[in-house]
Amino acid sequence: MATPSLCFVFSLLFFSATVAPAERIDREDDLLIRQVVSDADDHLLNSEHHFSVFKSKFAKTYATQEEHDYRFSVFKNNLLRAKSHQKLDPSAVHGVTRFSDLTPAEFRRQFLGLRPLRLPSDAQKAPILPTNDLPSDFDWRDHGAVTGVKNQGSCGSCWSFSAVGALEGAHFLSTGELVSLSEQQLVDCDHECDPEERGACDSGCNGGLMTTAFEYSLKAGGVMREKDYPYTGRDRGPCKFDKSKIAASVANFSVVSLNEEQIAANLVKNGPLAVGINAVFMQTYIGGVSCPYICGKHLDHGVLLVGYGAGAYAPIRFKEKPYWIIKNSWGENWGENGYYKICRGHNVCGVDSMVSTVAAVHISNH
Prior knowledge:
The protein is of the alpha+beta class. It is 28% helix and 19% strand. The radius of gyration is 21 Å and the shape is globular.
C-alpha cells in the first residue's frame, strides 16, 4: 500500500485564554470570542467584531465588497469549526487562526502537499531497545540538540523540515555541534523517487516523505548549512547544492516500531525523531495537551518529535495526561511558541504510525 507524502502548513495566532473548565464545556457563548475580548466587552460578542479584529490583526484586505462578504461567510464557518474542535479536544485550547478566511478546500490546495510514496526499500527497522530505565520526562531542547523553530511559509515542505530537524539532532549527538541545516537544499534538489511506483517522488512544495529525504541525503553525501543555502519557501529555482560545503551527512536511517515505549527509547538514545501526523486539530491549536476524542490516522504533515512528558494537567478531564512534545515548522507565533503537545497512547492522530530515526557521521569543514 502506498504511503502518502506529507505536508500541511498553517501559521496560527497564539491567544491566551482564561476560561474556566465549566465554561469550556457548558457555555453556549462562543469560546473563540472569549479568547479575543475581555469580559467587559461582552456587548461586542458577535461575528462582525471578530472579523474586524481578524482583519486588523493580520492586515487582511479584499479587492471588492463581494470578496469581503464571501470571506466573512467563510470566517463564520471557520469559527464554528474551531468551536467544534474545542468540544472534541477539550484538554487543549483552540481558536481563530490567520487563515480563518480560507475554506478547507483552499487550505488543501494551498498548504497541503500529498503524493503517494512508499518507504524506501533499504529503510531498515530500528532494533528493539530496552525500556526499563527510561526517564519519566525528557526533552532534547534541554540538551542542546534542537535548533530554533522555523517557518516553512506557504510551501508544502514540512517533510524537509522534519527530516532536517532529525539530522540536526543526529549531527549534534555525533559531533557535539548544533548546526542549522538547509531545508531548501531538499526542496530544490531532492527528487528521490520510488522506482516501483511511477511519479512517486519528493516534490518540493508539493510534498515529500522524510525517509525518502534521508535516502536522498545519503546518496548526495549530506546537507549544507542553512546559512549557505537559505530557505526561500519556493521550489522553482535550480539546485544549488555545493558538495564542498556539506555540514552534516547521513550514516543510516531506520523506521521505528509503532510501540510507544520503543518510540520513547529511540528518542532518548538516538535524538529527535521524524514523525508523520494528522494535522486536522493543529489548524486551530493554541495550547495545552491535544487529545481529541476522534482523530483520523491519515498522515498529512511532517513534524519533529523532541521529547515527552509524564503528565500535564488537563482541566477538562481532571487528570494527568502523558504527552509527546512536537516541534512544528509554522513559526514561533503558532501553538506553544511553535510547539505542539499531543497525548501519548492509542496512536492519537496517527502520531505513532510513521516514525523514523537517522544517524549522522562527523563532517568537518575548514
